[in-house]
Amino acid sequence: YFFYKYQIQWLDLTLNGDFGDETETILVTKLIAQGYKLYVDVYNNHGSLVFLPGILLSKYKTDAPIWMYRYIIIFLQDFALLSILTSPISNNFYRRYIATLFVGFIFVFYLPNFYGHSYIYQNIGGYLLFSIITGYVLPVLYGKKISKFRTIFFNVLLISIIFDAIIYLPIVAIFLIITVRKNKKYKDGKRKY
Q1: pLDDT per position as a tens digit, 149-182
Q2: CB neighbour class for 47 (10 Å; exposed up to 12, middle 13-18, buried from 19)
Q3: What is the pLDDT of residues 139-157, one digit of tens each?
Q4: In 3D, which of 178, 100, 84 has the Cα closest to residue 140?
């Protein structure tokens, strides 16, 4: 609770309540929630994934202030931390726990200086990519055994990032090629040579 409260207060102090690109994204989100069609009635050069969580919030609370949209980013940060904590990359729980704490402190105390908690497409895509890298790509590269559920979940998440912004297409393609090729080389967590 303390960290959430600190993050929101820090953003309100550093940004005086809003940030230009964030405000634009939230405004478009509210218009879509009211029934306007993206790219027809209202234009924004971001992908549709950017607006989805905000639309759900706008449907729930029509007059949601800007700081409420930042909780979506905090949720994505928590998801990124959870992906470190549950990552099969290390069998040592304490290493994963220390790494999670370290990254959590960076999220809370460092990233607000660079708008790392604002509701913008870069943060949505960045935190999702971070989660995918720590929870799926690195374990596959290190030859760890990955469950079928984790493979499907993270591949769907990886493909969905393209709908955040088209600029993520090359990295998504690279990660898909790498993980598919590495998954073919491993069987039961052992490398085939």
Answers
A1: 988 999 999 999 998 888 899 999 999 888 887 7
A2: buried
A3: 988 888 888 898 899 999 9
A4: 178
CB contact at 8 A, 80 and 131: yes
Distance CA 141, CA 135 (A): 11
Structure-token match 């040579």, residue found: 193
Dihedral sign of CA atoms 167, 169, 175, 177 in order: negative
Question: DSSP for 54-90?
Answer: HHHHHHH-TT--HHHHHHHHHHHHHHHHHHHHT-TT-
Q: Could you give the CA distance from residue 177 to residue 183 in angstroms, rounded to a whole number?
A: 10
For residue 187, the cross-strand partners are 190
- Tell me the C-alpha distance between 147 and 163, whole Å: 25
What does DSSP assign to residue 40? T
**Nearest Cα residue to 166 out of 26, 76, 48:** 48
Three-state DSSP state, 186: strand
Taking the complete model, does pTM exceed 0.90, yes or no? no
The better pLDDT of the pair 76, 183 is held by 76
